[in-house]
Amino acid sequence: MCLGDGLVNSRSDRAPDFWQRMSMAALQGVLRLATRRRYAGLEHIPRDGAVIIVANHVSKVDSLVIAGFMGAAGRWPRFLAKAPLFDVPLLGRFLLRMRQIPVNRGGADAGRVLVVAAEALRAGDVVVIYPEGGTPKPWEDKMRRKGKTGAARLLLSTGAPIVPVASWGPQNILDPETGRLRLRLRTPVTVVAGPPLPISYEDGSGADLHAVTEEIMRALRRLASEAEDSCEPAMRHGLMRR
């Protein structure tokens, strides 16, 4: 694997503080009540050190589900989140306090988010990125969405391992197409992590970045299919609706 210009730390020097630990505990309590979770592949999440988590994006609430999964793995996740969220009173301050990373899409400093993410990785943190960018549109094939090259660029600049994580079920809590919120207890949700991707390439050319991104997307599609299959028995028994 190409390690890039800046090697990552083997351990994080910024462990969650009291408020972050309390927030994670509260989130786990909510998830236990609201979802019936199936976790697989927790052993693929490194116990310490930098890691790039690439995740599929099925709903605006899947970040909470993935955060709970990362908490179960003993790690504090730092998400790349839309900048407008940080402008919301109280919520924005909370997100910054929780060390989340704002993404200003289309702005003059849009590329700076990868600089901030790379700094987090060099400090030994966990950075979660959605290669798909946003949640699926009604006309999109959810299993054939194209990815953006941000994760591949982070790999090149830091050498941090890339671990794919797929969730299925959050879209039954908050529908990404209609925005409809379905509040019911114990909605089946699956989160699956795969092993670190054995990605290598010779240089940082655009062709290589797109090839790496496609390899990432193939891994996510496989995991998403596995996660969906695990939810099917619950769907067939009427425990959730599509």
UniProtKB/TrEMBL annotation:
<protein>
    <submittedName>
        <fullName>1-acyl-sn-glycerol-3-phosphate acyltransferase</fullName>
    </submittedName>
</protein>
<dbReference type="InterPro" id="IPR002123">
    <property type="entry name" value="Plipid/glycerol_acylTrfase"/>
</dbReference>
<keyword id="KW-0808">Transferase</keyword>
<feature type="domain" description="Phospholipid/glycerol acyltransferase">
    <location>
        <begin position="51"/>
        <end position="170"/>
    </location>
</feature>
<dbReference type="GO" id="GO:0016746">
    <property type="term" value="F:acyltransferase activity"/>
</dbReference>
<dbReference type="Pfam" id="PF01553">
    <property type="entry name" value="Acyltransferase"/>
</dbReference>
<keyword id="KW-0012">Acyltransferase</keyword>
